[in-house]
Design a protein that fits this description.
With about 325 residues, the chain is an alpha/beta fold. The chain folds into two domains: about 120 residues, 3-Layer(aba) Sandwich (Rossmann fold); about 180 residues, NAD(P)-binding Rossmann-like Domain (Rossmann fold). About 35% of the residues lie in helices and about 15% in strands. The strands form two sheets. Strands 8-7-6-9-10-11-12 form a seven-stranded parallel beta sheet, sandwiched between helices. A five-stranded parallel beta sheet has the order 2-1-3-4-5. Helix 9 links the parallel strand 9 and strand 10. Helix 4 crosses helix 7. The longest helix is centred in the C-terminal third of the chain and has 19 residues.
Length: about 325
């Protein structure tokens, strides 16, 4: 019997995904996600399930590689162009974490507007009157304006929850004009930042969106407005955001993604009091983690069998 193909996991995946793969493949998990570690670990790999940024030259170090599958949606972790040139299939899992990320956005917005955990902590430490006094600064989100930069699958779900669930008015802007879902008013980027009480960034990271939320756009935000980023850290000019937060020129921010990950311990964001920070976990719940692991495993098996993955990102790979 021929040896089972080797599949590299950049990070551990849910046990149910492992169970799908193990009858058909040998699995190894990278010791860490440093570029040198991933290059060495990929040397014998026929497939890679990707949960961390791969080195841009990973295909040069993986001569047996047949495919890479994103454990999630965003494909900026994978050098797709280089993979296509080498005849290597790339797949992702659109929609696998939509609900988790959309619900995170609303949880983050509620946490910024009505920080109950802080009230709980103050009640325990300082008592009833001190905690109750916090409510004077709380705000409702119904009848306020939510702006969404990137009204794709996730942005559309956020819009639906915001409008139907909370009675918010929703503005949107996207690279494809004229394709807003029902209930979303299409506006320019400048208008979105100027009119919104809260802004969700859920666009893909591309050459066009890198650094698009700069000092000028942040300067258009209303003084009480808040910014929530579930896209990629590089979409925002971090220095400009830090300056606005420290000067309290905006109401606050919730950030799940950062230009450098993990977030360095000396990041200026950690010194900002009006920002909610989470470790790129918006897409991660027990159910979404299982769905992504099983979906990635099934796509990987299709690739290893020589079949076309359901969510093939680079259909030209076979012509390389």
């Amino acid at each position: 019997m021929p040896d089972k193909p080797l599949v590299l996991l950049t990070n551990p995946i849910h046990a149910d995904g492992v169970a799908v793969l193990t009858p058909h493949a040998r699995l190894i998990t990278a010791a860490d996600t440093e570029a040198a570690t991933l290059r060495a670990a990929a040397a014998e790999a026929a497939g890679i399930i990707v949960r961390a940024k791969l080195p841009d030259d990973i295909v040069d170090h993986a001569p047996r590689l047949k495919g890479m599958v994103r454990h999630g949606v965003g494909i900026d972790f994978i050098p797709v162009k280089a993979a296509t040139a080498r005849g290597i299939a790339v797949a992702n899992l659109p929609g696998s974490n939509t609900r988790a990320v959309a619900e995170y956005c609303m949880a983050a917005l509620l946490s910024l507007r009505r920080p109950l955990l802080r009230m709980d902590q103050l009640m325990r430490s300082d008592g009833w009157p001190a905690a109750r006094a916090l409510s004077d600064g709380f705000a409702e989100i119904g009848d306020t304006v939510l702006g969404i930069l990137g009204v794709g699958t996730i942005g559309s779900r956020v819009a639906e929850i915001a409008e139907i669930g909370f009675g918010m008015r929703v503005l949107g802007t996207s690279r494809r004009r004229g394709h807003m879902p029902e209930g979303v008013e299409e506006v320019s980027l400048d208008e979105l930042f100027a009119r919104s009480d809260a802004i969700v960034i859920s666009c893909a990271l591309t050459d066009e969106t890198r650094g698009i939320v700069d000092a000028r756009l942040i300067g258009r935000m209303r003084p009480h407005a808040v910014l929530i980023n579930v896209s990629r850290g590089a979409v925002i000019d971090t220095a400009a955001l830090v300056a606005a937060l420290k000067a309290e020129r905006i109401g606050g921010a919730a950030l799940d993604v950062f230009e450098v990950q993990p977030l360095p311990r000396d990041s200026e964001l950690l010194a900002c009091q009006n920002v909610l920070l989470t470790p790129h976990s918006a897409a991660l719940t027990a159910s979404s983690s299982r769905a992504m692991a099983v979906g990635a495993a099934e796509e990987m098996l299709r690739i290893l069998r020589g079949e076309r993955p359901i969510n093939l990102v680079n259909p030209d790979y076979r012509s390389a």
